[in-house]
Structures are given as C-alpha cells and as structure tokens.
C-alpha cells in the first residue's frame, strides 16, 4: 500500500485526511502542504515520530507512515526579514529593461510548452471580482488532496499573490504540479525532447473554471451576508431553449433552461463577424426520441439568452477533429480554422435575449444613451476645460440587477481580455494572453515577456493567417457613470 490519509499538525492548525503517496517523491507531498498552509517547501521541516523527511526520499520514515498517523510540520508561511544583500537602487540608476520590469505587470516563465497555462492565468487574473474572490478564499482540508478543486484554487491564490509582488517564478512551478495532479495528461512529455507536450488552453481554462465553481460555491459577497456560487453569479449564462419536432407538428413544444459558462462562436463559411457566429450557435437541430412517434426524430432547437452574467466568455470554435492521424490524441486535433472572424471592443447582446430580459435591460440602456448624448453635446460645446474633465473623479452605478448579484443589467459589454493561439493545432504552436485595465490600456503577456500594445493591435487578432488568433474572449460589463445634475463649475 502506497497511498495513505494522514494528519498534519502545524502550530495550532490541524489538517485531517491529507493524502500522502509514498510512490511519489516527498517534494510532491511538500507541495501539497505548501498549497494547504502557504509554507514554501524550502522552509518546511516535516517529521514523523522523531524522523525527519527529506525532499528526495522517504528513507526510514516510510515504515512509520500509516493511515491516521500524525506528521509534524514546522516552518513559517511569512518570510522573515532579511538584511539587504545589495545596496538600494533607484529607478534613475536602472537600465531601461530593469525599469520596465518594475512598471509592467508580472509575467510567467515558460517551463517547457506551458504557455497555455500562463495565458489562461493572465486572462483570469484580469477579472477584478474573480481576483478578489480567489484572494479571500479559505482553503479547507481537501486542499491537501492532489488534483482536488480546492488544491487548484489554493495554488492559484498563492500564485496571484506572488504575481502581485512580481516574484512568481517559483510559485508557477508549484501551480503546474498541482495542475498535473488534476489533469495527468498535462504532465506527458515528448519522447524525443523530454519536454512537456503542448496542451489545449481551453481545456486548461475549463479545468480551472470548474475548480473555481466547486470551491467558490458558498462565496460570501463583500459587504453583505449573502452567500452564493460566485462563478454561476458572475459567469453563468442562462438559455431558454425550445425544442420542436420537425416530423410531428402536433407534438407539444418543450421549453428548457440550461446554464453555461461560455458562449460558442461557430466559424462557418458565411460567418464574418463574431455576433453572427453567436447567433448561429443558438440555433440548430438535434436527434432525440419522440414520445408521439415512438422513435428517434429530428427536432429544431432554438435558444435565447434569459440571463446575462457580468462577465461573458466567448470561445472561437477554431479546432475540430480531422480525419486520419492514427490513434494518437494529438494527431486527432490537427485541424484548425484560420478564417478571419471580426470581433469588437464593445458588444451588445440585446438582440440575442428573450423579450422578458430585453424589457429588464431597457431602463439602464436608456440611461446609458442619455449619458452618451450629454457627453457628445458637452464635447461639441466645449464648456469644460479638458484638464478639469480629466481630473474629475468618476463613480459608477452597479452593473447588476438588485435581485441578481453578478448579472449584467444593460446587455452592453467591453472587451477586457483575449487568449490567442498561433499555429495550426491546439496541441502545438503558442498561446498568449492580452488584457485591458480599467484605464483602457492593453498589455500583452507572452510568457515572461510583457509589453504594452495599442487597442488597434488587439483588433488584428481576429484571424486570417498564421498570426496570433483569438481563441477565448473575455467581455466585462459596461458601467454607467453616477450623474449629478448640479455639478460645480470646475472652470472657476
């Protein structure tokens, strides 16, 4: 027997049912303890019955490991203050590249075809509410179970924290190991180069999103006593779908509701714009059993959006299984649609919604139009100096309905993130993350190479060649400015 459930005592804390596999190196177990306690492996001292466990092998301690036994963990989760080894350097004394590293957001090193993971993390980190939810997450005992949802979210929490301090080189390795436990085939290596094989970024995205949905299922909204599933509230799209039997017109039409975490943009021959691909994705046909005919029959399927989330995820369906290629999984994913399908910085989902939802969206939409008209008139009249307008502190109305936290109350969205792929197969090529901050500045995350890019460059990611192509798009809510009819005269 090599798999045990043990107890870990760390100071006043106690963790039960932590999985320990003696067939794996002790450093893997220490990575689990790191995600559970925040104590880095290099500062861990783990003992069992007086015997110290090393990083490389279990040694004599292996004979003492049994189900229910207690291991003692010593080590601090907070780094102790250290005397500076180098004199303090000011920005003026740094080279251009050194100064840029301080000004730009943190990149992530490529550990060998791990760009799919890096791009996914950067795009998820660009969503403010999600980042806040992850940072406030309290890991439970299941965080010590390899591959568990809690271990993924705890690892992501630690990684985001270190990224904020621009020191994530070590943590990204720990998160990769956690991801390998959850998705074992992500750990596959190329037989010739012995490097990790490239993986599909959307598969990684789905694994992390599902883990977040499991772990944040009882999330307490900031400033309230309300507890809800964070991912369902902020990412859940609800569709009202009707099914009508084409072969039996008298059969009763069925109406169902389904929840999705993304919408798909199907890239067919006549699709030139993302909105067209979304519309086609809401229509289709299915083959299912007909009660009236007593056999399978063709049904027309039609869907409309009955609830919009604050953050709308759109996947471009660029990859499909091609013929041939043998039994190898990678060879079966060798086909990619290179077609240019345009997307926009602003997105309006009103036409894809049910009449009931359209009615609920109308008041805020009218307010947005009124504000936009006033802005246009103000700019035309040039009543206020540009410097005064720039210095004005802007406040925003809630973007969600009062009775539906995390929803979208207007149907308007702004593009805040793009995950792109360059290459001809999802299991090869290169993935990059592109994100936009609240000031409208776009940043390109090409692993650990970080650079600012104009919005015009982002719009060129729509496809049509061998350049970076949009694969996953993240849209955030359009926010309405709080208006004050009696604004002071800032020109005085």
Show unreliable segments: 386-390, 486-492
Major beta sheet, specifics? 8 strands, mixed
Radius of gyration over C-alpha positions, nearest whole angstrom: 26 Å
Helix content: 25-40%
**What is the helix tally?**
12
The portion of residues forming beta strands comes to 15-25%
The rounded distance between the terminal residues' Cα atoms is: 81 Å
Record field, number of beta strands: 21
The average pLDDT value, as a whole number, equals 86
Shape by Cα distribution? globular
Helix vs. strand class: alpha+beta
Task: Describe the structure in brief.
28% of the residues lie in helices and 25% in strands.
Keywords:
five-stranded mixed sheet, 21 strands, 492 residues, 28% helix, 25% strand, eight-stranded mixed sheet, alpha+beta
Overview of the structural elements:
It is a single chain. The chain is α+β, with helices and mostly antiparallel strands. The strands form five sheets. Strands 10, 13, 16, 17, 18, 19, 20 and 21 form an eight-stranded mixed β-sheet that branches. Helix 1 packs across helix 5, helix 3 packs across helix 7 and helix 5 packs across helix 7. The termini are far apart.
Chart the SSEs and their pairings.
Elements: E1 3-10, E2 13-21, H1 26-37, E3 45-48, E4 51-53, E5 70-74, H2 96-103, H3 115-125, H4 128-135, H5 149-164, H6 169-182, H7 201-215, E6 219-220, E7 227-228, H8 230-235, E8 237-245, E9 254-260, E10 263-265, H9 274-281, E11 283-290, E12 295-307, E13 312-316, E14 319-320, E15 335-336, E16 346-348, H10 355-381, H11 386-391, E17 412-422, E18 430-436, E19 442-446, E20 449-453, H12 455-459, E21 469-477
Parallel strand pairs: 1-5, 10-13
Antiparallel strand pairs: 1-2, 3-4, 3-5, 6-7, 8-9, 8-12, 11-12, 13-21, 14-15, 16-17, 17-18, 17-21, 18-19, 19-20
């Amino acid at each position: 027997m090599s798999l045990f459930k043990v107890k870990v005592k760390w100071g006043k804390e106690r963790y039960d049912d932590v999985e320990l596999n003696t067939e794996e190196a002790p450093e893997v177990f220490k990575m689990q303890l790191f995600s559970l306690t925040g104590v880095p492996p290099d500062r861990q001292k783990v003992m069992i019955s007086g015997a110290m466990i090393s990083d490389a092998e279990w040694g004599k301690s292996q004979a003492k490991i049994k189900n229910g036994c207690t291991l003692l963990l010593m080590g601090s989760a907070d780094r102790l203050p250290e005397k500076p080894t180098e004199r303090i350097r000011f920005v003026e004394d740094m080279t251009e590249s050194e100064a840029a590293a301080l000004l730009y957001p943190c990149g992530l090193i490529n550990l060998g075809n791990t760009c799919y993971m890096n791009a996914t993390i950067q795009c998820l980190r660009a969503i403010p509410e999600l980042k806040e939810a992850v940072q406030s997450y309290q890991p439970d005992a299941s965080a010590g179970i390899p591959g568990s949802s809690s271990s993924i979210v705890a690892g992501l929490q630690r990684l985001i924290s270190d990224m904020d301090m621009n020191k994530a080189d070590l943590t990204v390795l720990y998160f990769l190991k956690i991801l390998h436990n959850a998705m074992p085939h992500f750990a596959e290596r190329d037989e010739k180069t012995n490097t990790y094989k490239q993986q599909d970024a959307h598969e990684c995205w789905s694994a992390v999103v599902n883990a977040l949905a499991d772990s944040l299922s009882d999330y307490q909204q900031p400033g309230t006593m309300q507890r809800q599933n964070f991912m369902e509230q902020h990412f859940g799209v609800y569709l009202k779908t009707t099914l009508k039997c084409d072969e039996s017109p008298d059969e009763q039409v069925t109406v169902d509701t389904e929840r999705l975490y993304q919408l798909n943009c199907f890239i067919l021959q006549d699709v030139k714009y993302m909105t067209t691909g979304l519309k086609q994705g809401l229509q289709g046909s299915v083959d299912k059993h007909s009660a009236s005919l007593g056999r399978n029959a063709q049904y027309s399927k039609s869907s409309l959006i009955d609830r919009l989330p604050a953050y709308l995820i759109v996947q471009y369906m660029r990859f499909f299984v091609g013929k041939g290629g043998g039994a190898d999984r990678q060879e079966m994913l060798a086909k990619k649609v290179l077609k240019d399908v345009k997307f926009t910085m602003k997105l309006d989902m009103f036409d894809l919604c049910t009449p009931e939802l359209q009615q609920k969206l109308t008041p805020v939409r009218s307010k947005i139009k009124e504000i936009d008209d006033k802005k246009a008139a103000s700019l035309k009249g040039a009543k206020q100096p540009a410097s005064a307008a720039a210095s004005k502190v802007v406040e925003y109305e809630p973007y969600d309905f009062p009775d539906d936290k995390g929803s979208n109350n207007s149907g308007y969205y702004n593009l805040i993130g793009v995950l792109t792929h360059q290459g001809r197969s999802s299991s090869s090529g290169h993935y990059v993350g592109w994100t936009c901050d609240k000031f409208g500045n776009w940043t390109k995350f090409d692993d650990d190479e970080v650079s600012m890019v104009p919005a015009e460059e982002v719009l060129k990611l729509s496809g049509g060649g061998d350049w970076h192509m949009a694969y996953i798009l993240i849209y955030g809510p359009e926010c309405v400015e709080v208006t004050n009819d009696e604004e002071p005269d800032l020109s005085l």
